[in-house]
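Quick look at the format.
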Amino acid sequence: MKQDMIVILDLGSEENPRLAREIRALGVYSEIYPHDITLAELNALPNVKGIILNGGPNHVVDGVEIDACSDIYGCGLPLLQPGHKGGAPWPTDAAQRKAVLSEFVFDACGAQPNWNMENFIADQVELIRRQVGDKKVLLALSGGVDSSVVAALLIKAIGKQLVCVHVNHGLLRKGEPEQVVEVFRNQMDANLIYVDAVDRFLNKLSGVAEPEQKRKIIGAEFIRVFEEEARKLDGIHFLAQGTIYPDIIESGTKTVKAVKSHHNVGGLPEDLDFALVEPLKMLFKDEVRACGKALGLPDSMVYRQPFPGPGLGVRCLGAITRDRLEAVRESDAILREEFAKAGLEGKVWQYFTVVPDFKSVGVHEGVRTFDWPVILRAVNTVDAMTATVEDVPFALLQKITQRITSEVKGVNRVLYDLTPKPSGTIEWE
């Protein structure tokens, strides 16, 4: 890496990710490291210009107050110690906080604002080529933001040495499998294997109503399909994954318990012995999107909404049927289209439709119907731990209702979910 770097040592602060993001927003690269990094390990890092020892509420581990190694203090690099060893706490005012960071990063450390996506991409292309050589890399390409950006970056670095496998399990949104093929095979000339596994997945899910069981079936079957495709290929030495920096941070540090473990293609058999390629593992989500834009991916892919791993399988409530799944897919497409027309695309964090497994009496063109309701959900959140409901204009809800009830087969009602998180969750299953 050619960019200057500010190292943040984790001394128990819960705001280390925010701090790293703020430094990167100044145009200077920053990474978080454990409090007990040795001087030798520090010296092995490229272009370190300064160190922030960030104190915080989790500064006691197993009854002992943690601190940096003593020789870090005498390493000769500029140090900033907010909330640690008498250091002043961070200002609460955003402008003052930015001023403190700017003074330290630029004046005290002399760092250059040379962290940008163009430099990041150039660095990663060089690192990928060095790691992979002339070998092949396998990637499970879901069409989600992370896997799509990884694919675009690897195509730029190694071209046809990348083998992408896109498994269509029938639970994607309308047009998404076709978009993956169009963008990667037709536009980017990727080495793409398209697997139509719709019948296979839906047959496995037939009659299964319990949400966790559905999730397990979908996850396990995906691994089996991916494994079968991998075994057909020769010369694969690497597996690419869309791991990003929050995945690593959330998996836990010495001062923060794991939020969750992250396995992008978890559970593959040990005899599929691949080394990992994870070129996005030091990027935050907004940086991943910026990288995708710089690599030329379409906005519809780069700014794709958060989407559950089991896809529409957890929005077709209860036992999945093909006709009800199609009602979810079509109503979701209408909702997304109308939100885009109304200027809400990109302003509302997540919006989708749900179709439950019950029916009600209705009337269509003077004839009695007995059909499903569609539930609309639109929420905003910062961390997905809590969420508020979007105040959608009533006229827009009326328009969406009219379109869904007239265009989506088997639907006669539309409902709007007003429940925040808590007491509800973002998804229904």
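Next, a different chain entirely:
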Amino acid sequence: MPGTDPSVAEIHEAITELLRTEELATLATVDSEGRPSASPMHIAGDGLVGYLHTFRHTRKSTQMRQNPNVSYSVCHVPAEGYAARWETRSLQIQGIATLVTDPVEIQRIAELSQEQFPWARDVSLYDNLRTPDQGQQLFYRIEPVQGLWADNRVRMLYRVLVDFGDGGKTITKVEDYNAVVRGRA
């Protein structure tokens, strides 16, 4: 994508690719007193929507059920580190977490996870999935509402604010991050 700024379709494609290839994200939830909690998580991407797997009796699960407003960040840092800084890209999302209860969607998420994470095919983690009322394993769908997309492949420090619509499935607005932030100052 070097040269000109990417189109909305190219940003959509780049975000989708990042969510399909990067395995770990940091999820931020909010406790009952308004304090944030951060947890490293595996994230499976389905387009612009992210799916997280956890268990019923975890802090993050309890907090997402109490307050579905969450945030997560995921990034690609090349193995060469700073020497390959022109390849880094990252996504920061503010979204809504929804407990997945539909057995068909649960099975689809397990298949997505096994496709994205080769290690998941070799373990029994997803062998006996049940709906949340019948088991301890839970999946949450994170529908993005707003985000910050940074992509050094475009140019160093290229950043845009992104608004999402249609349950997080589409990008509805892209704004230059620096122009918006300067306008608020």
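The chain has four helices and eight strands.

See the schema section for token definitions.
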